[in-house]
Amino acid sequence: xxxxxxxxxxxxxxxxxxxxxxxxxxxxxxxxxxxxxxxxxxxxxxxxxxxxxxxxxxxxxxxxxxxxxxxxxxxxxxxxxxxxxxxxxxxxxxxxxxxxxxxxxxxxxxxxxxxxxxxxxxxxxxxxxxxxxxxxxxxxxxxxxxxxxxxxxxxxxxxxxxxxxxxxxxxxxxxxxxxxxxxxxxxxxxxxxxxxxxxxxxxxxxxxxxxxxxxxxxxxxxxxxxxxxxxxxxxxxxxxxxxxxxxxxxxxxxxxxxxxxxxxxxxxxxxxxxxxxxxxxxxxxxxxxxxxxxxxxxxxxxxxxxxxxxxxxxxxxxxxxxxxxxxxxxxxxxxxxxxxxxxxxxxxxxxxxxxxxxxxxxxxxxxxxxxxxxxxxxxxxxxxxxxxxxxxxxxxxxxxxxxxxxxxxxxxxxxxxxxxxxxxxxxxxxxxxxxxxxxxxx
Length: 442
Prior knowledge:
Radius of gyration: 24 Å
Oligomer: single chain
Strand content: 25-35%
Shape: elongated
Distance between the termini: 25 Å
């Protein structure tokens, strides 16, 4: 009977595995294994290049990988749907209840590990499974996300749509200001909630891109001798912590404090946002837990969330797999899900029990090769091999203006335009493996 190797999600780790399987076509045929990818999004974004996209240095196409192209290359069946439930049988042999209530051995499902149930109604039986669906906005931020005007940076696809609309809206606002006779600036406040590297990259990149957009639009108006009320951007960062970048060393934190000050970005510390209300004028009023800030400090035109993420809720609610307190799949050092032989997970949707690491794109990328090896070992009946992720990783955090600060461990801090150029080369080189270097067929 043909066996099925199923992948759920097209994250950073999976794109490596999927491409790698193109070199295993002969062996897969001999093993009588069909490969299936279930993916909600066909165009999957690379998170490492998102700040550059926000800043205007990359196009939408530059930061997205076409999963359909990879699947065509590797002869993988692609199902454009979201997996919403997984049934798993630990003994790989089970009974099913028929219509009259009797338990009979299922002809279709016997000896299969389980079934993925998709939102389009498809059911995919599998013998080996791997999950790489990324993370989701935290449960703690649910009250904020109940307001439709509050935008989370993840999922990235939804954020990209919002950002395109925001730029168009600000450009129209600047153009329409030409009807006024005065030159009083019109303030537009953008609040970002978060205190990690992601939040800082987002707010700096947005400021760089949006200010340049408004300046270019204003110059065009001046050329046509149109009176205008210039749009004045105000960028505000709200963090519940007493400092920023807690996972980075003191020197790096000092560098970013300087950059934020130079760029006139306000930072409110000990400012835990617990709710957001929409005002009659369509602006947003942030509600904080115990704050000395003035009410006017808490009014913004846009509110973005870039806070700590949790595991996707369906992983803990609609699968039998073990998850931790934050909803992430618990995996062994082999990337095999704890107590679930034949099921693997990689990237931000999981946490390695014996070697916990912070969620970071570099860990997801580096999970690809060991994940691919162990999935193959499981297919051919060999023992899986442990892998220990690097504990101290090099972080290259961009500031939006083709400038970056390097961070590693408790000591390294370097900065400059050349650091951004280095990061740009690394990111483009990684992306090229899954875009430019993919032929039509293996």
